[in-house]
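ingest -> validate -> predict -> emit
validate: passed (alphabet ok, no gaps, 166 aa)
predict: started
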Amino acid sequence: MNGWDNFFVAMAGAAVAFAGLVLVSISINLDRIIKQPGLVGRAAAPLVVLFTLFVASSIMLIPDQRLRFYGYELLALAIAFVISMSKVLHGQHRSALQVEKAGLAPENSFRFRFLLCTIIAITLLGAGVTLSAGNEKGIFLMAPAAITAFLFCFIEAWVLLIEIDR
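emit:
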């Protein structure tokens, strides 16, 4: 897994910086977020994703572990991510569909966000399974997980910071 340190240092730093942006956008629009149905969950979702990226990066930066242990840790993290995001998305599903029907959000917005979270979960789980089986190639699944996660968080931050005022 030589050569991946810079990727994980950058990913951890970007996740923390991005979490700061999300927290600022939440604090600026807190009254609106609390009043509008589904927005509390939408505010929580990027924080869960970013925390997961930060922890995944931190795990991968722990020196001198066996390859399988990286996999076990990523598997545990991925399972926690799936459980957390399932609760968050389940909580906002009904209100998200109502918002879409009212024309306040693009059609299929919730489905797209669900798809992005599914991609993040599958790639994290895949990385964990592959690494825990002793195959170093599982590390390559962390790149699409990170890219998809940052795309998801960018969309959510945009909604919480800009679109909320529409």
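The longest helix spans residues 67-101.
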